[in-house]
Amino acid sequence: MPLKNKKIRIGNGDYIPAEEKGNVAVKTISAEYLKKDEENEYQVTPTGNTILHLAAHYGHSHFAAEVLNITPALLCHQNKKNETALHIVANEGHIEVVHFLLSIEEHYKDKLMRMKDENGAPTLHKAVRSRHEDVASFLVKEDPEFEFPSNKVRETPMYLEAESGLREALVEILNSCKRPTSSTGPLNRTPLHAAVIQEHTDCVRLLLQWNKSLCEELDVGGLNSLHFAALLGLNEIVSDMLGWKKSLAYFPAGSENDRTTAIHIAVGAGKVDILHELLNHCPDCWELLESNGRNALHESILYSQTNV
């Protein structure tokens, strides 16, 4: 919605022009609305946003500068969702305002970047989830000592970057972060699982270069990344994984009472190229049996995969 001639509500019946940025009018408005309640609570919107949150949302760096010049304490003020202005601007992708907010006070920079919203997400999560790769890369560079843990639903920034295919942001966190967290995410899946499932092959290769043992990790269903790559027909990824460790082809998938293998998965899905890849690396894997005693040939007949 165009901002011209629109107004933003600040308090009980109080409004400011939304299109104002950093001129004299804004200085006057900022002083009026921030100084008159100095001894009381800050004036906020119904969702708890201060005037700084609003400036951040619309990308008004000059306006934000004037606000903080009058009331620096607003920098770390949180709304009803526990979001600071930095959370808001990272979500919106206004890189200029991100630079500005983090340049205000070096002493508070790490604290500001690590503050969590109601979902347990620091600022980096916001930038990654909204696919603002430039903001995400910058935030990682600014706090390389932080391990960037998971939010309340177990998503780490690395997991979200892999899932979203944000290659440059993933490169940054792998190269710059001294203690990147690769802990498992939803359904006990690793960042490698996420990249494979979404078929982001460039991110898959980055993660394999960084930590090949992620291939062996199982999700809640008992599937590793090779099993998903076989199911989806990602021939080059299957080749890379088996090139590192052939025995991955023999790893069981599923539960004890419903066990299968990569070759059964490939045959059932009709992925002939994957079948060739598996047999090239492990010629005897066709003899493997699933929990019902069927080999790959039985599987092809069961699922009418005549091409297999």
Automatic annotation (TrEMBL):
Pfam families: Ank_2 (PF12796). Keywords: ANK repeat, Repeat. The keyword DNA repair does not apply. The keyword Repeat applies. ANK repeats lie at residues 81-103, 187-209. It comes from the Eukaryota. Gene3D superfamilies: Ankyrin repeat-containing domain. InterPro entries: Ankyrin_rpt, Ankyrin_rpt-contain_sf. This is Uncharacterized protein.
